[in-house]
Write a structure and sequence with these properties.
about 80 residues; Alpha-Beta Plaits; alpha+beta; four-stranded antiparallel sheet; globular
Length: about 80
């Protein structure tokens, strides 16, 4: 399954390597389409490719960190 999402990062995560963490700890392929980060907040448009259960685990982790997720496009394979 392939899905593109927009993520909104709260400022308190500015020193956390969230994207690196999910690449290392979840069985997903990740493509950064566009991103912008500052000391107060950040956003990114990412494209994920993985099995649906692994995507759900990944998104649950992101939400637990206070990151807002907005689905942009989804393609089931």
């Amino acid at each position: 399954m392939q899905i593109s999402v927009g993520l909104a990062f709260p400022g308190e995560l500015k020193d956390d390597s969230v994207i690196c963490y999910i690449c290392k700890n979840f069985d997903i392929q990740l493509n950064i389409i566009e991103a912008s980060f500052s000391m107060s907040d950040g956003w990114a448009i990412l494209q994920f490719e993985a099995e649906e259960p692994e995507l759900k685990r990944t998104f649950a982790y992101l939400e637990s960190k206070g990151i807002k997720i907005q689905k942009i496009q989804e393609e089931k394979s």
